[in-house]
Design brief:
The complex is a heterodimer of chains A (130) and B (180). Chain A has three helices and six strands; from the N terminus they run βββαβαβαβ. With 130 residues, chain A is α/β, with parallel strands linked by helices. The radius of gyration of chain A is 14 Å and the shape is globular. Classes of the chains: A alpha/beta (130), B alpha+beta (180).
Chain lengths: 130, 180
């Protein structure tokens, strides 16, 4: 399976999903005009990735400074897919990284955390120079 | 005409208007204004959280115009352009973001219902409503997630206000204002 990579756009984040390392990274901001359209290839990739057998634990690293409401809905879908995998026994860890002075990013992380039961969801504060 | 423009410009400045835009709204315009808006707020040493809230409301409002304005371009290549008006200003140490566009009669009912519901909610109720709506399946014909107004209300420091002004049969003008 090939990696899923998207370069950072003006209103879209950098995405790097590595199927060898089981490492999924999203970083930047997200407020595209049509979130459903932008993210559908990513969600399709995740679906086929999760269907593969004999997979090790999945690690997710998220560093989102800002995202709009339609991206929020997509991210919920994304986490729900991971939750489903975690429920059926595959360990999934999420590191939600936020900057010290970005209260909103922390709050958004908490609101995803509250929605998930089986995914091991951590909130990680970044130092000012990180 | 030239003098009128200058007068208009000064009038806008006196009212504390930082940005005003009328015409076709697009995603690239949103990205451009958004970047300048952030730069300006950073230069004025606005806190990161206030800047974040204003930017967030601005994005939701502009994308509402793009997705739901009834007024579209008329030319063959302009049909996808949505028209509206946007104003961002500062009054008594508060930022306000105001947006207006034409809507159809059919849009009026659902909009009024949604906004009056949101207006009556406190922050905790808004959070709960937001989470409920986020998990709902989106209708196939919906361009957004139906979360925009809830998001705005959560970011605003006062309840968001709105008005729907009847213009002619089947056509109304919708205005929404949020304060941070």
């Amino acid at each position: 399976m090939e990696a899923f990579v998207r370069e950072k756009g003006k209103a879209t984040p950098w995405i790097n999903f590595d199927p060898e390392k089981n490492l999924l990274k999203i970083k930047g901001e997200s407020y595209p005009e049509n979130s459903a359209k932008f993210y559908s290839p990513m969600l399709e990739w995740l679906e086929s990735f999760l269907q593969q057998s004999n997979k090790g634990p999945i690690e997710v690293e998220m560093e989102l400074v800002y995202f709009n409401s339609s991206s929020s809905k997509i991210l919920m879908n994304f986490f729900d897919m991971l939750e489903e995998a975690a429920r059926s026994g595959l360990p999934v860890t999420v590191q939600w990284k936020y900057h010290q002075d970005n209260d909103i990013s922390l709050e958004c992380g908490e609101e995803f955390q509250e929605e998930l039961e089986y995914v091991d969801f951590h909130l990680l504060e970044l130092k000012p120079d990180e | 005409m030239v003098h009128q423009i200058q007068k208009f410009y000064e009038q806008l400045k006196e009212e504390g208007i930082v940005f005003s835009f009328t015409g076709p709204v697009s995603q690239s315009l949103l990205e451009g204004i958004g970047e300048t808006l952030r730069q300006k707020m950073t230069l004025e040493e606005t806190s990161i959280n206030v800047t974040h809230k204003v930017f967030s409301i601005f994005v939701e409002l502009m994308q509402n115009v793009i997705n739901y304005s009834e007024e579209k371009g008329t030319g063959e290549y302009e049909q996808d352009l949505s028209f509206g008006i946007l104003i961002i200003g500062k009054r008594d140490e508060h930022f306000y973001i105001q947006c207006g566009n034409y809507i159809t009669q059919a849009q009026k009912g659902p909009l009024t219902e949604k906004l009056s519901k949101i207006q009556s909610m406190n922050k905790d109720e808004l959070k709960k409503y937001y989470k409920e709506q986020r998990r709902k399946e989106t209708a196939d014909d919906s361009k957004g997630a139906g979360l925009g107004f809830i998001e705005m209300a959560r970011k605003a420091t006062r309840p968001i206000s709105y008005d729907i002004i009847p213009i002619q049969t089947g056509k109304e003008f919708f205005v929404v204002t949020a304060v941070v």
